[in-house]
């Protein structure tokens, strides 16, 4: 707890309007911070003098008036609950912000990018004609094949996964695909694919 937080909790503490955890944190801070401890003592003395003057001084106000005056005294603005949660969970907050940034950037790319993208370790084994990517009969892709914004026509062998993003694919009877066939044509599926790919690239 820093001095700013401690200062904002002092009024609530004197009014017995803090949680047990907040009270413990404030006491620990006051024990280690002489400036805040001095400020707290002055605040405590001021409130005690004010109450004593109203209750037992020359004014001799009735209890009802005392209660009304005390209710009118403004209390320090309490921190919103979500701000406290963010301060207590910085790692989760950072992860959530990262996912949000990835989500918005990925969705913007999804909406704007229509260029053909082909990813494979054996690019010389495919034929690209316009937006059509063909694995001819007799050709072998040793790993995965990813086609984005185009059509994949498989007549030969793909020894890994075939992933088609925002496109279509055709598998001939002569074709053999050893791995999974993934067709991604929904924005959320595409975003999830991008996020998992990022984590896989970082991991490896």
TrEMBL record:
This is Anti-sigma-W factor RsiW. It comes from Fontibacillus phaseoli. InterPro entries: Anti_sigma_zinc_sf (IPR041916), Znf_put (IPR027383). Residues 3-36 form the Putative zinc-finger domain. Signal peptide: none annotated. Gene3D superfamilies: Anti-sigma factor, zinc-finger domain. Belongs to the zinc-associated anti-sigma factor (ZAS) superfamily. Anti-sigma-W factor family. Pfam families: zf-HC2. It comes from the Bacteria.
């Amino acid at each position: 707890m820093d001095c700013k937080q401690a200062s904002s909790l002092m009024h609530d503490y004197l009014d017995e309007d803090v949680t047990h955890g907040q009270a413990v944190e404030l006491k620990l801070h006051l024990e280690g911070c002489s400036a805040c401890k001095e400020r707290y003592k002055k605040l405590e003395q001021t409130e005690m003098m004010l109450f004593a003057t109203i209750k037992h001084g020359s004014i001799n106000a009735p209890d009802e008036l005392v209660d009304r005056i005390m209710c009118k005294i403004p209390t320090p603005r309490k921190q919103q609950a979500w701000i406290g949660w963010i301060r207590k969970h910085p790692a989760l907050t950072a992860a959530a912000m990262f996912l949000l940034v990835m989500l918005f950037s990925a969705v913007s790319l999804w909406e704007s990018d229509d260029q053909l993208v082909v990813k494979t370790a054996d690019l010389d084994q495919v034929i690209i004609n316009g937006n059509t990517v063909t694995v001819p009969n007799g050709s072998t892709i040793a790993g995965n094949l990813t086609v984005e914004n185009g059509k994949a026509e498989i007549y030969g062998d793909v020894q890994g996964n075939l992933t088609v993003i925002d496109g279509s694919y055709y598998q001939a009877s002569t074709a053999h695909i050893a791995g999974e066939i993934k067709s991604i044509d929904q924005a959320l599926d595409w975003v999830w694919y991008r996020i998992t790919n990022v984590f896989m690239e970082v991991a490896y």
